[in-house]
Amino acid sequence: xPVKLIADLHTHTIASGHAYGTIRENAQAAxxxxxxxxxxxxxxxxxxxxxxxxxxxxxxxxxxKLFDVQILFGCEVNVLNDGTLSLxxxxxxxxxxxxxxxxxxxxxxxxxxxxxxxxxxxxxxxxIKIVSHPDDDHTPLDYKRLVPAAKEYGVALELNNSSLxxxxxxxxxxxxxxxxxxxxxxxxxxxxxxxxxxxxxxxGNFSLATKFIDETGFPEDxxxxxxxxxVIDFLHASTHSKNQ
Length: 244
Prior knowledge:
By secondary structure, the chain is α/β, with parallel strands linked by helices. It has one domain: TIM Barrel. Helices cover 31% and strands 17% of the residues. It has helices at 23-32, 89-92, 112-123, 143-153, 161-165, 173-187, 207-216, 228-235, and strands at 7-11, 37-43, 65-66, 69-78, 98-101, 128-131, 156-160, 191-194. Strands 1, 2, 3, 4, 5, 6, 7 and 8 form an eight-stranded mixed beta sheet that branches. A hairpin with a 2-residue loop joins strand 3 and strand 4. The protein is globular, with a radius of gyration of 16 Å. The termini are far apart.
């Protein structure tokens, strides 16, 4: 039976520039899917049309619970070719957590080893809690290095349902996820399953990801968003061991 998930930590609203719902529409969709936690994670600088970083300064005015769903605010920050994040520290400080991701719109493939080094360098930042869609061989990664680094720096690797939907565009994503999950199980590294929704209709859609998990037999106790306390404890965990 597919694992039941209680949180979707990677979703976008109209503020990202190429998504089509509001915070409240996403929250209502999450409530209808019986989710307990919703992460709103707009794209960071570098993605065309996304919000100005000033957007993150005023998130305090938004209720932290909508439609009986706990709302967390993050940002999907771009990994840059110099191994840094595309969002400055003063804006990162405003967030509950951040996601680091490689996007070809603002990143040039530097080869497997350098791509991996750049991503790992960004994972060291205390705000980074998740790596988004580490699955596309257009910017290949070395999972034998990435997975132990995730454990060292307290970061969860994402199984992205949207990637599985658009598998024709995400080169070798199923194969790469199979490799990643095998290594995560071996090294006891947690994952998070997210929708990466860009419309309210996609919030809480984990169908392909949970089917994949069920087929691979990946242990439920390593899936962060299968348990509410597990999610909150992970996002609030001390990051003193991360090197800046």
